[in-house]
Automatic annotation (TrEMBL):
It is found in: Cytoplasm. The gene is deoK. Its main location: cytoplasm. Its cofactor is Mg(2+). This is Deoxyribokinase. Pathway: Carbohydrate metabolism; D-tagatose 6-phosphate degradation; D-glyceraldehyde 3-phosphate and glycerone phosphate from D-tagatose 6-phosphate: step 1/2. It comes from Lentilactobacillus fungorum. Catalyzes the ATP-dependent phosphorylation of 2-deoxy-D-ribose to 2-deoxy-D-ribose 5-phosphate (dRib-5P), allowing the use of deoxyribose as the sole carbon source. Keywords: ATP-binding, Carbohydrate metabolism, Cytoplasm, Kinase, Lactose metabolism, Magnesium, Metal-binding, Nucleotide-binding, Potassium, Transferase. Homodimer.
Amino acid sequence: DVLVIGSNMIDLITYIDRMPIEGETVEAPDFQMGFGGKGANQAVAAARLGSKVSFITMVGNDTFGQQQLANFKENQIDTTGVGTGTKSSGAAPIFVEPSSDNRILIIKGANNELTPAVLDQHVDLIKNAKIIVLQQEIPLETNYHAIDLANQFNVPVLLNPAPANKDLDINHVSNVNFFSPNETELATLTGMPTTNLTEIKQAAQHMVQMGVNNMIITLGSKGVLWVNKDTSDLIPAVKVKAVDTTGAGDSFIGSFAHYFAQGEAIPTALKHANQYAAITVTRQGTQKSYPTAAELASLVK
Ligand code: ADP
């Protein structure tokens, strides 16, 4: 049983020849809508692997909200924790240039209405989880409260501090079981350099000294670094030809939560999450690129 507490967004992916200047209207060649938001992506990855996943999130009272709900259900995610806010659904207009450079706007909308009080309505979900997965596209206070409740019921927490937020109070979150930034987020969190593996290890060890049980640092095509008080292990990525790495981090986090909830030891779960994320980078799209357990079995021999 995996419980994800976090965000959902509708990606509005607009393929442009160029950005219009002020006052100008230009035609763009293509458009695509996609289901996103870090919380939703992670929940979908774990659910496609076969975990029983619950998701505490807020959608808007609009058609995007209805579509999100339908997408959660289609992915067999338990939606008792999905609420409807008064703001619009979270949305991300993304502009992609022919060079594949992109510009992204994030409107958090109803995601900002996921307040600490909402969690108090779902204490049963928190109590019964094998792992609780958090990111940073909802108010920080809600994550703090989630960690306090999880500690009260002895449920392990994985905090993926993405996107990086300088306001995160490390003292408040330092006792989580798993802290999983990428190298850039680790630099923001610690204020330490992370330009090579030696520096990354030092920054991770600093977080372990602060009280984090396990640091899991994703390193893109290099794989993942696992650091705790006894360990400092690099688990290499699977070698693949990457075509689209959007949502790779979320597929890694969601699949790791699945494997951990299945009772796998940490190094085994990390190896399996590397395999899962590697497949997602060989395919276009975000949630679209996340394989089911059956597909995975046919792809990994
Ligand atoms: P984020 O998108 O959060 O920056 P990363 O780029 O670190 O996340 O990628 C997350 C995980 O996805 C990596 O730890 C690795 O397992 C996998 N991954 C990402 N890029 C590649 C790649 N080019 N080849 C193989 N695996 C990859």
